[in-house]
Design a protein that fits this description.
heterodimer, A: Rossmann fold, 12 helices, 9 strands, B: alpha/beta, Rossmann fold, 15 helices, 13 strands, globular, Transketolase_C (chain B), THDP-binding (chain B), oxidoreductase (chain B), Pyruvate dehydrogenase E1 component beta subunit (chain B), Transketolase-like_Pyr-bd (chain B)
């Protein structure tokens, strides 16, 4: 385990990271109306605590895979903000050169391998990546060289896959859990249960039973928790990452949360009536930022002036990120056919 | 320097896998039945013993998940070879193959690559039936970013397998099951240049026969007999399916007076045979001097019963008849067919091919 993982949660730092995602998403939502970000965009407002609480335990050597709602995971893992924004605008300087848009993100330097929008598509890829890490470690161990780098001997890089409750219905999810347990992979399954697949509630899609218990039945170490409490997520992830790193096999966290905006796009959509009456309002009271801010102030870990300073600092960063992204260039038609083959 | 040995197509694949496992420490060989006692028609024999269970392994019956897992391992620097004993099983993995493997390098702007080989076996015989003997190569060849190769000769099987494994792209490697027992030469020091484009299997002057996989073997059979009757057939094997070498076919047609017969081993609808014809007409509009013909399978699934399955598959006899029709020499058909006729049932390529598997 790294020193970072043993430390208690630095709540102020976690709050700042969550706030960064929230403000970046809000800025995207505001500018989306300008019709210049011309791709399907799924915002993660309301769900920030999960990405931050989990990624707090990862190094750049650890890898993350994600899904269509991936901005938060990308930023939490250290993905470059201007390149994310440039990708939304379709510029050549985007993280995928404009080939992906919001639903295809990558930042290899940060260890964020990929997000893609076929539900379940990246789940087995994460397991394959973890399998390769495990094999490489075994080869290194046989060769006698030290790859541990200050970690517990035998510790390995871990891979994290973020997915939603809808993904849990995909066959490939269960195929992957089976193999992950069979090979005791250093892999974390992070299920963000926000109760809706697009606009269809969980009760129409799954029988009444806990998702994490199905994972446990596959043989994973599986627990559930409050995905809107960043301190809870941090603690659960701390144990899970340590277990995966130290050869105890794949770990599964089911974290309950709620998406505030519409499934895809910059607006709210409570007027459509697919959520239960009062449901969104209730979840807003359980906002991960609000809850953390209350603790920070109550326990005098921060103060109004410091929180205001955070806002100013982030507003500047995000403004500069947009300015930089908007300096991007159009990808050329001549380049369009490139990279069909490696 | 030449290092030529005679072996079967199946043995050539085994040898290529063996040599690649030795050369690439990051290579994995995985699939349902890979280390089992039947060793995928002999193509994986002894490899687990030699390279260990970590690199040569069986897998859960989860074709889509395991394809994704192999893609993930490839992203992390491994070089997996995933085997499906029937192409029909690979249909379960089309999501991962098409949405991920084929597009990954492109959609992430060249930053990542997927060195992955998918071995699939097509073919016929002994009542394989509707879900064990499909010929879906055109469907896969249509996907941008997925290379599709279908070697016919023993030498090509060895070298194209090595090339596929060394390739940093996903390659679908298609083996016709009736080729596994065919014997031929492998020259390990064959120049790489001989592996690109179409392969000229037989020189001829009267007509060009462009054929695919096992149909190239049938074409050679027909050509040998036709030769005895004074008809000279050139056989061109179309081994790279999404880089169809139409130029090679056109240059053959320049020699054979623009007379063309295409022999495909798939249902006729939207087949690669049609694609070849279409590309030829568009790129070399004057190459054809006479109406071409296309031989392919009927557009319905193959039934299991050997009483009817036999008539589903065209072979050397149909090829010879079509050649003689194109050349306006139908008076020879009866005697050529007589020479071609064998007493083997049509659901067996030779006496060694027996049921039940």
């Amino acid at each position: 385990m790294t020193a970072m993982s043993q430390a208690p949660a630095d709540l102020k730092h976690l709050y700042y990271q969550m706030l960064r995602i929230r403000r970046a998403e809000e800025a995207i939502a505001r500018r989306y109306a300008e019709q210049q970000m011309r791709c399907p965009t799924h915002l993660c407002i309301g769900e920030e605590a999960i990405a931050i609480g989990v990624c707090a335990h990862l190094t750049t050597q650890d890898k993350v895979f994600s899904n269509h709602r991936g901005h938060g995971h990308y930023l939490a893992k250290g993905g470059d903000l201007p390149r994310l924004l440039a990708e939304l605008y379709g510029f050549a300087e985007g993280c995928c050169g404009g080939r992906g848009g919001s639903m295809h993100l990558t930042d290899l330097a940060a260890g964020f391998i990929a997000s893609t929008p076929i539900v379940g598509g990246t789940v087995p890829l994460a397991a394959g990546y973890a399998w390769a890490e495990q094999m490489k470690k075994s080869v290194t161990a046989q060769g006698g060289a030290s790859a541990a780098g200050g970690r517990t001997p035998g510790a390995t890089n871990v891979v994290v896959i973020f997915f939603g409750d809808g993904c849990f219905e995909e066959g490939v999810m269960h195929e992957t859990m089976n193999f992950a347990v069979l090979k005791k992979l250093p892999l974390l399954f992070i299920c963000e249960n926000n109760q809706y697949s697009v606009m269809t509630p969980l009760a129409e899609r799954q029988p009444k039973r806990d998702i994490y218990k199905i994972a446990a039945a596959h043989g994973l170490t599986a627990v559930s928790g409050d995905g809107n409490r960043v301190d809870d997520v941090y603690e659960l992830a701390q144990a899970a990452v340590a277990n995966a790193r130290n050869g105890l096999g794949p770990q599964f966290l089911e974290l309950h949360t709620h998406r505030w905006p519409e499934h895809c796009g910059p607006n709210e959509d409570d007027d459509l009536g697919y959520r239960n009456p009062g449901e969104l309002a209730e979840w807003k009271l359980r906002c991960p930022l609000l809850q953390t801010r209350q603790v920070l102030l109550a326990e005098r870990l921060s103060n109004d002036a410091e929180l205001a300073h955070m806002e100013t600092k982030l507003a500047e960063e995000i403004e500069q990120a947009f300015a930089r992204a908007l300096q991007g260039s159009r990808p050329t038609i001549e380049r369009m056919g490139q990279h069909l083959y490696a | 320097m030449r290092d030529v040995r005679v072996m079967s197509y199946g043995e050539a694949i085994r040898e290529a896998l063996d040599d690649a496992l030795a050369k690439h420490p990051e290579m994995l060989l995985i699939g349902e039945g890979v280390p089992d006692p039947k060793t995928i028609f002999g193509t994986t024999q002894g490899l687990r013993e030699k390279y260990g269970a970590e690199r040569v392994l069986d897998m859960p019956l989860a074709e889509n998940g395991m394809t994704g897992i192999c893609i993930g391992a490839a992203l992390a620097g491994m070089r997996p070879v995933l085997v499906h004993q029937r192409i029909d099983f690979a249909l379960l993995s089309v999501d991962q193959l098409v949405n991920n493997a084929a597009k990954w390098h492109y959609m992430f702007d060249g930053q990542q690559q997927v060195p992955l080989v998918i071995r699939v076996i097509i073919g016929r015989g002994w009542g394989q039936g509707p879900q064990h003997s499909q010929s879906l190569q055109a469907m896969f060849a249509q996907v941008p970013g997925l290379k599709v190769v279908m070697p016919t000769t023993v030498g090509d099987a060895y070298h194209l397998m090595l090339e596929a494994i060394a390739d940093n792209n996903p390659v679908l490697f298609i083996e016709h099951r009736w080729l596994h027992h065919v014997h031929g030469e492998v020259d390990k020091h064959r120049p790489a240049a001989e592996l690109s484009g179409a392969a000229l299997l037989r020189q001829g002057a009267d007509i060009t026969l462009a054929a695919f996989s096992h149909m190239s073997i049938e074409a050679l059979k027909a050509a040998t007999v036709l030769d005895k009757h004074g008809v000279s057939v050139e056989v061109v094997d179309m081994r790279h399916l999404n880089e169809l070498d139409v130029d090679r076919v056109a240059s053959s047609l320049a020699k054979t007076g623009g007379k063309l017969l295409i022999a495909d081993c798939a249902p006729e609808m939207a087949s690669i045979g049609h694609q070849l014809l279409s590309k030829l007409v568009l790129a070399h509009r004057n190459s054809l001097q006479q109406a071409p013909r296309l031989i392919a399978y009927p557009n319905h699934p193959v039934p299991t019963s050997h009483f009817v399955a036999n008539d589903y598959y065209p072979g050397a006899e149909q090829i010879a008849s079509a050649v003689l029709e194109i050349l306006d020499k139908s008076e020879l058909t009866e005697s050529v067919i007589r020479d071609l006729q064998s007493d083997l049932p049509k659901d067996q390529p030779d006496r060694s091919f027996v049921g039940p598997f």
